[in-house]
Amino acid sequence: MFAIYGTSGPIYQGTLENLPRISPVVRRGPVIAARRIGDQIEEVVLPTDSGATEASALGGQAVEAYKAMLPQNIERGPLYHANQIMQRQLVTVNADDDVARAWRVLVEHQIHQAPVLDSGQRLIGIVSERDLLTTLNVDDGQVRDVLARRVSDVMTTPVVAASPVTDIRRIARVMLDRDVEGVPIVNDAGTLVGFVSHSDIMRAIVTDPPLSIWR
Question: Which of 63, 123, 134, 181 is most deeply packed, by most CB within 10 A?
Answer without folding.
Answer: 123
